[in-house]
Amino acid sequence: MNNDPESDSGILFKVGRRILMWTMRQMNRRGQAFLTYTSRPKYSSQIAPMAEPEKDLGPMAIVMQGPIAEEDNVTLETMRIYARTMPNARRYLSTWEDTPEHLLAPLRKEGVEIVLSAKPDVPGFSNVNMQLVSAGAGVRKAHGDGAEWILKTRTDQRLYRHNVMGFLASMALTYPPEGGFDQKYRIIGVGHGTLKFAPYHMGDQTVFGHANDMLNYWTPDLISAPPPDYFPETVPEMYDTMPIGEMCKHAVAESYIASSYLKKIGRPLDWSVEDSWAAYRDCFAVVDYGTTDFFWAKVQTGTLREFINRYDLLWIRNELTFADWMMLYAGTVTVADARKYEKALDLKFMDVIDADT
Predict the structure, then answer these.
(1) CATH value at residue 128
(2) What is the span of the domain harbouring residue 160?
(3) Smaller CB count within 10 Å for the chain: N or C?
(4) Residue 169 has pLDDT above 70, yes or no
């Protein structure tokens, strides 16, 4: 990494930033939207180790699962960052047994514990079995090593906020689950993926919880059967043509994992938007991007967008935010308010929702 401002790369960065700033100012002045940008450091050496001393809430573990993200050394640098920002958390990488050793060695050197698994014979729809095998192996290892709290995340995602584990454990302790089901604390979704109008579509990428609950969450049965015969053959075709209610029941990884967990803890399901909101209220919680400074390298650098939600309309991809969840929890918004959105189950993934019908 060259930080010399007079180097060719440093000069190029300065020129590029001036062009970007000029372009954004012109668009803010003349356009109909306000544009801002966020700059996040790539490397651990750019981040001060400012984590505050925390009350001992029990042993904590970070389980990063999936193939190593090699570009910009995202996986390695993220593990280094976590050593600075969450120094008391034990770090695990759960990945595939065919991963080259030259990619694993630098992580081992940083004190990361490596968990290797064979890839499943059947990847499952949206590679759900791949996710369950790698996530489950890492969570099992952390649980077996005595972790009390586990953060399961991806190799290409990063939480920049200091003391994230302490914050999430505080959330779990402050808002106990309701309904009398067989769970110790809430499962907390972080960042992308918890959809407001898709049943039980709990974000599955970065997830936090008590070790016992996380073990339950990440060990459902693997999927051996394909979606029903009337479904299209490819996942893109499914999202383009199938109603989201049907998709979530038969071919969405997030909904499969969350609904399997709910059934495992003894909660009945009816696959409505209303019942999904009730499950969010009683058994889950979500935190927003800003509270953890969440970053997904693949998506946010690809789309150059921080958020999925839109200002001008409701659509199926609207996410349940922390504010939405808090109002459900407090009863400011009731689960019965979801009834006007039940027709959303008949819409496709990118469709707009008419809240007046």
Answers:
(1) 3.90.550
(2) 58-346
(3) C
(4) yes
